[in-house]
Write a structure and sequence with these properties.
Elements: E1 3-6, E2 9-12, H1 13-16, E3 18-23, E4 44-45, E5 49-50, H2 53-62, E6 66-71, H3 76-85, E7 96-101, H4 114-119, H5 122-128, E8 132-137, E9 140-142, H6 146-155, E10 160-168, E11 176-180, E12 186-191, E13 205-216, H7 217-228, H8 237-245, E14 251-255, E15 267-269, H9 273-282, E16 310-312, E17 314-315, E18 318-319, E19 321-323, E20 326-327, E21 332-334, E22 337-339, E23 342-343, E24 348-349, E25 354-356, E26 359-360, E27 365-366, E28 371-373, E29 375-377, E30 382-383, E31 388-389, H10 393-399, E32 401-402, E33 408-410, H11 412-415
Parallel strand pairs: 3-6, 3-8, 6-7, 10-14, 16-21, 19-22, 20-23, 21-24, 22-25, 23-26, 24-27, 25-28, 26-29, 27-30, 28-31, 29-33
Antiparallel strand pairs: 1-2, 4-5, 8-13, 9-15, 10-13, 11-12, 17-18, 32-33
């Protein structure tokens, strides 16, 4: 496969002929109040990023520089983030990250399914005349070289290639589950089955779709137009398009791999409060599975201009420090202890506080004498002096949301009726 070198990376001609479409219009209702004012792809992650930064960075690092982001639900903060952080591609060179909000382009309906969202923008996709269309979910955390997947798609003569990963059987009902033959051809695909079947030869794993699809463009157009005419369809890739194509087309599976090592890759669906909290705190490990310090596969984002993090006071009983934690720029920890936690930019922790096993989103302010444990604190929360969170579940449930695993979610609305929306 011919390649040329761009910015120190080898970029294939196949990726240059590919248009990426990122589906970023979903609310993510399993995140509860955290998505009251933002779409799931706009949720903060990793101390300085938003979830959408991961598929966008994967595209850029893979050499795919023509990217359309489809938005719908409460997209203001998502739109603003992309405009601020992703305007560096050269439009004069045909490179772009562009937003496509739902516009009722075909009729009076908003996007009613993932396939319908792409269908409503077929005229725009046609304008770019890509040979391949890469369709991505905008709400997962992972690193992936899409170029190898596109190459496998072409090499095997597939009509559609589906990115897949093994997941624990107990959570497989949240995904599209597939069976494949020895040649990685998909022979069955069931979207979110109530009783998923394990992968052959294993009892505790199922093969799940990652919501990543490579289509040959002509096939994509044909299947979307065919699905549009089906009155019984929900116009969804997982529920309708892929199961129907298995009977008539070559549908291949592509096993997910780490883009640098080639081994098992890191992939997280952070669609619940528990999963989001866990994935953030996993980053505090000495050697985390997700390496955010990797210069070979950087995660790009909007870089806020803030001062370095600061820790002040060194008195007995009033010592400002953090251990086993990630502390972003602009934070001030004043005479308080932060353990096994993650603080996003501009967090202020006043004196005599204990913060443990917690994730604090940007611009959170914690008053004096607070004790916070196993919590996820939303953006712009102002925690009153003397507040205790995470030590009495019954008391927490009266004011906040407590997840099945006991993570306490706190939002500005829960603290006060007079608040700025957390975007």
């Amino acid at each position: 496969m011919s390649t040329n070198q761009t910015s120190g990376r080898f970029v294939s001609r196949l990726t240059q002929k590919t248009l990426a479409v990122i589906l970023a219009g979903g609310r993510g209702s399993r995140l509860h109040q955290l998505t009251n004012w933002r779409a799931k792809p706009a949720v903060h992650f990793g101390g300085k990023f938003r979830i959408i930064d991961f598929p966008l960075s994967n595209c850029v690092n893979s050499g795919i520089r023509r990217i359309r982001v489809l938005t719908q639900y409460k997209s203001h903060s998502l739109d603003r983030h992309i405009q601020r952080g992703w305007g560096f591609l050269g439009g004069e060179l045909g490179e772009f990250v562009e937003l496509l909000p739902a516009q009722q382009r075909l009729d009076e309906s908003w996007y009613v399914g993932t396939a319908d969202a792409v269908l409503q923008n077929l005229d725009i996709i046609r304008r770019h005349n890509p040979e391949y269309v890469l369709i991505l979910a905008g709400d997962h955390i992972y690193k992936m070289d899409y170029g190898t997947m596109i190459a496998a798609h072409v090499e095997r003569g597939a009509d559609i290639t589906v990115g897949c990963i093994e997941v624990p059987l107990e959570i497989a009902s949240s995904f599209g589950v597939m069976d494949i033959d020895k040649d990685n051809r998909v022979i069955r695909f069931t979207e979110k089955p109530a009783n998923p079947e394990p992968t052959p030869g294993k009892t505790d794993k199922a093969l799940a779709s990652m919501g990543i699809y490579v289509f040959s463009t002509k096939v994509l157009f044909s299947e979307l137009l065919k699905d549009q005419k089906n009155p019984d369809s929900e116009h969804d890739f997982g529920k309708n398009i892929i199961p129907a194509m298995i009977k008539t087309h070559r549908v291949n599976a592509f096993p997910f791999r780490d883009p640098i090592s080639g081994g098992d890759g890191y992939w997280r669906d952070v669609g619940t409060v528990d999963a989001l909290w866990e994935a953030n705190l996993e980053l505090t490990a000495v050697i985390p599975e997700l390496d955010l310090y990797d210069a070979e596969w950087p995660i790009w984002t909007h870089q806020e201009q803030v001062a370095p993090a600061k820790f002040v006071f060194d008195d007995e009983g009033r010592r400002g420090y953090a251990v086993d934690s990630l502390i972003a720029g602009g934070c001030i920890v004043s005479g308080s202890v932060v353990k096994h936690s993650l603080l996003f930019p501009r967090v202020r922790v006043h004196s005599y506080c204990d913060i443990e096993d917690s994730v604090l989103f940007p611009s959170v302010e914690v008053g004096r004498n607070c004790k916070i444990r196993k919590a996820l604190i939303d953006r712009r929360c102002k925690i009153p002096e003397g507040t205790v969170i995470g030590y009495d579940e019954e008391a927490d449930r009266k004011r906040f949301f407590v997840s099945p695993k006991g993570v306490v979610l706190v939002t500005p609305e829960m603290l006060s009726e007079d608040h700025p929306h957390a975007l």
